[in-house]
Amino acid sequence: MRAKKTAESSGFSLIELLIVVAIVLILASIAVPNLLRARRSANEASAVGSLRAIASGQLVYRHTEGNFTTLAGLANESIIDDILASGSKSGYTFASDPGFMPDLEFTAQASPAVSSGVMATGTRFFFVSQDQVIRAKRGAAADSTSNPLQD
């Protein structure tokens, strides 16, 4: 004969549920920092790619128009896409301007939208100019004296 189920023997005990919650929290504490680090790394790679597109676009624009321009000027000629031209993409903000001598120089910068803390979108700032060398600096704005990226 089969025994009758009582209310005490069905379901999970409080201890069992607490153990499952503890295991889930331990796994989350391991996974979340790795996920955030991977997201920051992906954002930084996207920023470098975007700066390469801006730098190449500036050369194309100069070749056709005789001088360098802004992000809006590159977008007006359909050299870069509208997302990049808006100045914000993948957790980074972008700016590009002709220099004091627009026919000879330009600068472009990429800065993380959030550069510190748990929700940082990146930790490195990037810079490129007419020499086409992308430079990086951790924690502060990069410029022409910053270290070049190592491929």
Short description:
The chain is α+β, with helices and mostly antiparallel strands and 151 residues long. It has three helices and six strands.
Identify the notable features of this structure and list them briefly.
single chain; 151 residues; 3 helices
Commentary on this structure:
The protein has about 150 residues and is of the alpha+beta class. The protein has one domain. It contains 3 helices and 6 strands; from the N terminus they run H-H-H-E-E-E-E-E-E. A 6-stranded antiparallel β-sheet has the order 1-2-3-4-5-6. It is elongated and about 85 Å long.
Helix-strand blueprint:
Elements: H1 14-65, H2 71-76, H3 82-85, E1 88-89, E2 92-98, E3 106-112, E4 124-129, E5 135-138, E6 147-148
Antiparallel strand pairs: 1-2, 2-3, 3-4, 4-5, 5-6
Percent range of helical residues = 40-55%
CA-to-CA gap between the ends?
74 Å
Order of helices and strands: HHHEEEEEE
Assembly state (oligomeric): single chain
Number of domains: 1
